[in-house]
Specification:
Two copies of one chain form a homodimer.
Chain A: H1 2-14, H2 18-21, E1 46-47, H3 62-65, E2 73-80, E3 84-85, E4 89-92, E5 96-98, H4 103-106, E6 110-112, E7 115-119, E8 125-128, H5 130-143, H6 151-169, E9 178-187, E10 199-207, E11 219-223, H7 249-257, E12 262-268, E13 274-279, E14 282-289, E15 295-299, H8 311-323, E16 338-341, H9 346-354, E17 358-365, E18 369-378, E19 381-384, H10 394-407, E20 416-418
Parallel strand pairs in A: 1-4, 11-12, 11-18, 15-16
Antiparallel strand pairs in A: 2-3, 2-4, 2-10, 6-9, 7-8, 7-9, 8-20, 9-10, 12-13, 13-14, 14-15, 14-17, 17-18, 18-19
Helix pairs in contact in A: 5-6
């Protein structure tokens, strides 16, 4: 498995979107490390349709705002260490039955992914770079001792659930809207021993989440204090484990009480310098002018493995490299922009603010999409970030437009994955 | 709540066992911060006895070794942000029903405790310092945004479940044996929003765990490498969150593959010095002779909050201070021992090994009790630790004997909490 994922990764480091292009490719069975055990196999999916089909709530109705409403069905798939993956089941959405000793509930042996189903302006349903999510869940699973699977099968299962519930829950008249898909992999081992689970459960649900609104004021971020550190080198901040989310809520709540939307997580490096890592559970990007006068899009590098390799982050970097830098035509005003994954210290940001070199900043991720930042509170310092077009900056607006064009089918692009919903 | 717990803690810092003595004391209702909401109340417990009473497995039978076998009953208690705690229910042991979106499964909003029920040589059932567990779960709950409760009520519920299942599952003829109690507090909020849960579930199960055997060879520990760090200042290593356990399994598995029993977790401090923090999920203690020739019992201090404030650790320190140091009569040979919570660097330990100053080392905790350590593998260096009495050192044997005397009723002590099992 490790080798196969590695191969996927390195090929994608080279090209821009090799992972997104492998969707039709067959994975070598022997490369997945569980020869003799049944692999995850989307073609074995069984279908049990609900007899209690529910009404679809209006966008931004209380049911949607609660974050509790899911579509009619879910997919579940059991795994055992002795047999591998059983046949996946599509069935009515409903509660799971877990033993009180399940190690998912005691030792946080759990990981998840988040992606969206988009209803295009052409009436088609699409996913955005779902193989990225699949491969990231493999990384998460490995880190938390959960089983492996073929990314293609994972994506096919996600797409099959979307094909069943998408037409009703995200109908054609809701073009430009989305549903939120939550694939989840948990231990289902009922032993209190702290050990690699012998049973696991993979499941996929689709939730109705509220539309991402344009915030008039932009995000106000509170830089984290030394007594609250989200992740550290040698830890697990780079994967999507439950263990990264619960423990960071306390700091997030304190920020909200003080009137901020999110924590800007800092990391104090080996030289005592405070570096920016991410904003809430989103990646953080900055457009600024360097001291030498170059226009630069900067975001923290992945090398320390202390925050998530975001798919929105990666897509923006890819698009910006292709369309705004180097040999491209440059941005709106025609000025080329340097794209840099680099350490971002708070000292540098403070200095750039004082010297009026900040162009804009934004948080990027599947949930928050591209959210302009208007303020960073760093100790006593309130750093105001420009929002030249009222509620956004030029680049945040541009990246959103580019991404939306792909997600909603206004532009043909191999990052879009069409769901065969037979409508 | 914070104030009340604070009060409990500081009083216990002063006296030796104030927390253990408050069992009959009434907590001030107003001190718990949820006036108007129903508090956790053991007197509201309802009883539904099982109709399918199961056979008690033999000690160390496969059912016991699996870690999956629980007693006939469990206690569950629901909490909601709007109403507080509902009436707790004692009912047949069985699966929990959780929504697939429960934030316990996505964001690791979960914490637990572990304590034992002892069958004394006088035929009585006892708990050991259960208020310590209750107060620690309060600390855990606070860190992971779960609700508060009165420690007395928590302990009463634990004792009530023990009173129902103890007589059958730990009968009088099993004196000197124990069952393992697992109180667990999880979010039961079915919203995918990353937010403080509006619903929670507290439950208690009792598991049959194998007896802790004397290991002939002692524990062999593998010192952690820089690429695997369990906890860090500003994190949550000091509380009993699921998030501390799952992510550390990968390193534990690698240690086992290499023939070691546990990881010895190191922390690289701000000066680049590698300090010992804990062994697996147990605290680490060392008896050595200082360069100045003093006999010293040393263990890492709690101040950085990177490992658990273990109850066995604390009890050994308390007993050693009382019986071996200062004005006491001293240990077996009559030599007094200095008790020190101090930083323990690997460099110091290596030097002490080379200079033959190590007397013994052991890992201490509820699961592993007091387990002598025979070897620490630190990079290329294999540090052999003396075991003067074959399978143990003098002090490990002494602390075990002292603790067992209290746990199994050979010595009357206010750390023992008698369960009223009406046998």
């Amino acid at each position: 498995m490790a080798l196969y994922v590695q191969a996927l990764k390195s090929s994608s480091e080279v090209g821009s979107s090799s992972i997104d292009q492998i969707q039709s490719q067959k994975a070598p069975t022997t490369g997945l490390g569980f020869t003799g055990l049944a692999p995850l196999d989307a073609s074995r999916l069984t279908f049990t349709h609900t007899a209690n089909s529910r009404a679809v709530p209006l966008s931004n109705s209380p049911e949607v705002l609660s974050g509790e409403t899911c579509t009619d069905h879910m997919i579940t798939c059991q795994w055992t260490a002795s047999g591998g993956w059983l046949a996946p089941e599509l069935k009515p959405y409903g509660p799971l039955s877990l033993m009180p000793t399940s190690s998912s509930l005691h030792y946080a042996i759990q990981c998840f992914e988040g992606l969206k189903l988009y209803r295009g302006f052409d009436g088609r349903l699409r996913l955005f770079r779902p193989f990225r999510n699949a491969v990231r869940m493999l990384d998460s699973a490995k880190r938390i001792s959960l089983p492996s699977f073929r990314p293609e099968e994972w994506v096919k299962l996600v797409a099959k659930l979307c094909a069943v519930d998408g037409p009703k829950w995200l109908p054609k008249e809701r073009s430009g809207h989305f549903l939120y898909i939550r694939p989840t992999l948990i231990s289902n081992d009922p032993s209190l021993s702290v050990k690699r689970p012998a049973k696991a459960l993979f499941y996929i649900v689709i939730s109705c989440l509220p539309a991402v609104d344009e915030r008039e004021k932009g995000l106000r971020l509170l830089a984290s204090q030394a007594d609250m550190v989200r992740a550290w080198p040698g830890g697990f901040g780079y994967v999507k484990l439950g263990a990264n989310y619960g423990p960071s809520m306390l700091a997030g709540d304190e920020a909200k009480k003080k009137g901020f939307e999110q924590i800007l997580w800092l990391f104090r490096n080996e030289n005592g310098i405070r570096e920016v890592t991410e904003a809430g559970a989103s990646n953080f990007m900055l457009v600024w002018r360097t001291r030498e006068g170059r226009l630069q899009l900067a975001t923290a590098p992945l090398d320390r493995q202390i925050f998530l390799d975001g798919i929105t982050r990666r897509s923006i970097l890819d698009l910006a490299r292709e369309r705004l830098s180097g040999d491209s035509d440059g941005g709106e005003g025609g000025e080329k922009i340097e794209i840099k994954e680099r350490r971002l210290s708070m000292d540098d940001i403070v200095a750039a603010c004082e010297e009026d070199r900040i162009v804009e900043a934004f948080a990027v991720g599947t949930s928050y999409f591209v959210s302009p930042v208007s303020l960073i509170q760093y100790g006593e310092k309130a750093l105001e970030i420009p929002m030249v077009e009222g509620s956004t900056g030029v680049y945040a607006r541009l990246f959103k437009a580019w991404l939306k064009a792909i997600m909603y089918g206004l532009e043909k692009h191999d990052w879009a994955y069409l769901v065969d919903s037979k409508e």
